[in-house]
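Appendix B. Raw example, untouched.
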Amino acid sequence: MFEAFNYPGEPAVRGFLHRAEREADGLVLAHSAGSNCHSPLLVALAEAFRVEGVTVLRCDLPFRQARPHGPPFGSSAMDQAGLRQAIEALRAEVSGRIFLGGHSYGGRMASMLAAESARVADALLLLSYPLHPPRKPQQLRTAHFSGLRTPVFFVHGTRDPLGSISEMESALKLISANTQLFPLENAGHELLGKTNRELTVSAIVKSFIHWSGTLENSA
C-alpha cells in the first residue's frame, strides 16, 4: 500500500509514499516533536487520504533523521527546509495541488514555512497545533499567524492541553486567509483515542477534502 521514499538533496527527504491510484493532489505530512513518520496517526491518515485519491508523503523531519530519539533543539530552520524539499519531491509525483500538513510540531513548522512563502503549498492541514506549552497560555506560538496567506484547516481536540477550542478560535482571527477549525470531541493532543479511531480518521480526511474542494471552486 505504500513504498519507501528517499529523495537526495540537502536536506534529504526520507519517508514513505502512499500513492493514489489516479492522478490527483498530494499531501506532505510531518510528525510531532516526540514522534516520527511511523506515527499511528500519520500512517492512518496517509492511507485514508490515499483511498480518497490523494497521494501522501509522510516523512521524517531533519531533526529526527539526525537524532532517532529526543525532541528537536534549534532545528526549526532546517526542519522547514526539509518540508520545502519534501514538497518539491512530491511535486514530481503528482500533477494536482500540493497540501502541507503536520501533527503538533510538524504542523507548526508547516505554518511557519507557509508564512514565509505563501505559494509553497495550496493549503495547510494542521493537526493539534501547539498553541502554547501546557499550563502556559500566555506563551502563544502565533507570532507568524498574521503573515499566513495560505488557507488553513485546523483539527483540534476539545481536551488538548496545548490549546482550548476557544483559544484556537481567537488565534484563527489573526489569520487573514481562509481558515476552518474542525473540533474533535473528547480528543486530546494525540487526537486518536482507544475507540472509533477509523471513524475519527475518516471524518478528518473527508472534511478536509470537502473544504479544499470549496477553495478550488472559489478560485
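End of appendix B.
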